[in-house]
Fold this sequence. Notes:
single chain, alpha/beta, Rossmann fold, 2 domains, 8-stranded mixed β-sheet, 8 helices, globular
Amino acid sequence: MKILKVILGLILIILGISLLVVAYYLIADIETKVPEGIEETCNLEVETFIGRHLFILTPKEEKSDKVILYFHGGAYVAEATDDHWEFLENVVNDTKATVIMPDYPLTPKYTYKDVFTMVTPLYKEIIDKVDNENLIVMGDSAGGGIATALMERISDDTVDMPSKVILISPWLDVRLENPEIEEVQKIDNELNKDTLRIAGITYAGQDGMDNYLVNPIDGDLSKLENVTILTGTRDILNPDAHLFVEKAKEQGTEIELKEYNDAGHIWMIEKNSSSELIHKGYDDIITLINS
């Protein structure tokens, strides 16, 4: 009996902690934090846009005219990681471009509506200041989904498109209903379909699951221009990348798909690894930016 009480007590404690964690994420406004030492390798400015931070990275010395609007990944629930920061530091120094990374609102406190309330006017403000030939939009994972949906949204307005859109392992459909995902799940050691789906549901909110801003694979792809997708075969988001390219082709749009055998999710973000596969993906991104 004593043992049973102890077990029940432990279960209640665990449940209580879990509820506290859930409550925290529901009310907390999670923000990206700047890692220490970043200003040793590049310049950093922090500005505010519609109540959110914009992180602007520039090289220490010579600077090109190119500007990259970058949306970080994290399943719409997580802020930019140290790997993201290091990746962007490397991009800045290898391309001499300016990188603008918005600290967009995260779920479960916010939904896609809050995200696009920020990123749509942000894009329009940037394109008013930067020649579209010098503007590149990039995103990884969930950030790739935001970048894609943003391009679909502004294509309906009288707004210039960027010169390039570079999508790294983009999350293009939060429903994850593509039947080919099940086979890839067996070899994907990083992402879990069921966990991602929960994040997607909270990001969509009560009315967004059928909205193209949540699932850009359903959007108007006919006006997209100069889009490149980089995807690995060990990523459960890979099948939807292929389906996205097929749908675009049916609508008269050619999208370049760079597929890397045995690569996982956003594999090239870890640029300092000794892996040739990681360096190949990273070098291809730098070539795309510089070309």
